[in-house]
Design goal:
Layout: H1 3-26, H2 30-81, H3 87-149, H4 151-168, H5 173-185, E1 191-195, E2 198-199, H6 208-215, E3 228-230
Helix pairs in contact: 1-4, 2-3
Length: 236
Amino acid sequence: MNNDVEKLWELQTVLTQLNDRERQLTTKPEDFAAIDREWQAANEDMTKLEQQIETSSKERRRVEGELTDQQELLKKYQGQLMQVKNQQQYAAAWKEIDATRKQVKELEDADLKAMDDVEALQKQLDDRRGGSTELKSRWDAAHEAWQSSLGHLQKEVAKLRERAASIESQVPPRVKAEFYKIYNQRQKLAVVPVAAESCSACRTRVRPQVSQQLKRGELVHCEGCHRILYVESPPS
């Protein structure tokens, strides 16, 4: 058996274990996942309320700016009323004043509505924030418990990484690069055993010539899936 292939088989086995442990580290247990979903939903609700408050506040600022402009315009028209010289000018001035007063009233109503909207949204947000305090405490406790339970997995991951690095150091760089190219392209399965004279991954028949190459200890690729073929050494 080719010693490099033996090392690659061992490396793949370690990497499989490492991937499994790392997946466990990032997979939330259901008891924590449930409260995490609740916490995320609460945060999303509060974020939406904050955005609505900002939108309503921006609208109120726009209305207040326009209201100020119209109030100044009304003062101007009222001042001009004192300077009219005939009935026609007087009627025209009053027409402008009435139209501006109407606009001022509409803007005052809009300003009042915008103010009420902001206050109502702010109250909802304050209520949500108050209610989320207890939820955040439960989330913190559940998260801490989950992280504490991962201690043994984190140690195992560290050991597996060290072992993988040690095996890699024993493999020629060219062979290691070839292994990882296939590993990343073939669903993290670069080395596969020969079973019943066939590739155990794609079931391509191993020709007699290829079998002879394997017996001579050569690094051989499957003619079907191009993975590295592995033949287990007979027990001593």
